[in-house]
Amino acid sequence: MSDDKPPRKRMVRPPSGGTESGRATPARLKTAWKRTPSQQAWLNRQINDPFAAQARAHGYRSRAAYKLTEIDDRFHFLKRGARVIDLGLAPGGWTQVAIERGVTDIAGVDLLPVEPLPPAHILQMDFTDPACGLELIRLLGGTPDLVMSDMAPNTVGHRQTDHLRIVGLIEAAADFAIQVLKPGGAFLAKAFQGGETAEVIGLLKRHFAEVKTVKPKASRSDSSELYLVATGFKGR
Length: 236
Ligand code: SAM
Description:
This protein has 236 residues and is an alpha/beta fold. It has a single domain (65-233), classed as Rossmann fold (3-Layer(aba) Sandwich). It is built from seven helices and seven strands. The chain has helices spanning 37-47, 50-58, 65-75, 93-100, 132-140, 159-180, 195-207; strands at 83-87, 105-110, 121-124, 146-149, 186-192, 208-214, 225-233. Helix 4 (93-100) links the parallel strand 1 and strand 2. Helix 3 crosses helix 4. 36% of the residues are buried. Mean pLDDT is 87; it is low at 9-24. It binds S-adenosylmethionine. The site of S-adenosylmethionine (SAM) has 25 residues, from helix 4 and strand 2.
């Protein structure tokens, strides 16, 4: 489940409770009577989260925008003239950052509907549908310089199952990137610490000149989320 969206009703988890030492007493939402505990916890976290507040003030659709901003400040792959594919783009923070940085050729996909973000081409589809990759390339009008994936499946609450589901998505994104990237291109993907992620890193190392793991500041410190950044695609 994304850090950036309210949890669905069926994912009932008790609120974590307590405050981090040294922090001011967090604000709490008073109209909580219709919310599940996990929705309330998500809301409390949002209203006390500096990245979420910054995102709202800046007009970004998600705090995830700051993760991409920090990664791109280091690797510089979002440039005017670059062709970009954004996998799991909803609600659109990463695509907003790409457009802000001069990218005009961008196509993205998500299971969820996304409000238009011109000039981005937006597809509502399951990325694992075999027809999706070709459709993205068709919308983009050519092969990409960057494939970025922030896809995250809904969690079921069983750690190993959740890990395998996210790894399945990363592998699908990595296979796609290896099939479609231009030589010299880059791949960026959300991953989670855990055994199978090492296998994906191994796969990427065979196809890219350099592979790094990055934990941006906007990625919550209590989450095992990290990002894989593979640069210098060696070509097919
Ligand atoms: N990067 C986005 C942003 O900046 O706003 C946030 C992405 S959110 C963390 C993860 C997204 O992955 C969700 O919107 C979810 O619907 C999408 N997703 C998960 N599985 C998917 C799949 N199989 N195909 C397409 N999108 C998927």
